[in-house]
Amino acid sequence: MARRCELTGKGWQSGHQVSHANNKTKTRFLPNLCQVSLMSEAMGLSYNLRISAHALKSVEHRGGLDSFLLKAKSDGLSAKCKKLKVSITKKVEALAAKAA
After folding, report:
1. Cβ–Cβ contacts within 10 Å for residue 45, how many?
2. How many other CB atoms sit within 10 Å of the CB of residue 7?
């Protein structure tokens, strides 16, 4: 499994660890990934996702998984999240049409 956030696409970065003597060694800086279960209000189901802690804060700030996915661009999303975004969009449109 790749060390990549499913919502933002954030992955590892490479860089140097610099010692006090200014010796540089290559290293990989890994994202802070968390295994979380997020509830979709439109679908009425919870989904297990592996996302970064920063993405989790962003989901909470935007008001939930549904609103985050509706506003997100499809470029950084995983295949699982792209399918979820399409199904949420269809469900929201169907509810809007039924209400009108």
Report:
1. 11
2. 23
Q: How many helices (H) and strands (E) does the chain have?
A: 3, 4
**Predicted TM-score of the model (pTM):** 0.85
- Dist. CA 53–CA 68, nearest whole Å: 15
Can you list the domains of the chain with their CATH numbers?
Answer: 13-93 (2.30.170.40)
Question: How many CA atoms within 13 Å lie on the side-chain side of 100?
Answer: 6
The CB density around residue 63, as the number of other CB atoms within 10 Å, is 11
Q: What would the pLDDT profile of 68-95 be if each residue is shown by its tens digit?
A: 999 999 998 999 999 999 999 999 999 9
Cβ-count burial of 22 within 10 angstroms (0-12 exposed, 13-18 middle, 19+ buried)? exposed
**Can you tell me the distance from the alpha carbon of 52 to that of 88, in angstroms, rounded to the nearest whole number?**
22
**What is the spatial distance between Cα 94 and Cα 20, in angstroms, rounded to a whole number?**
61
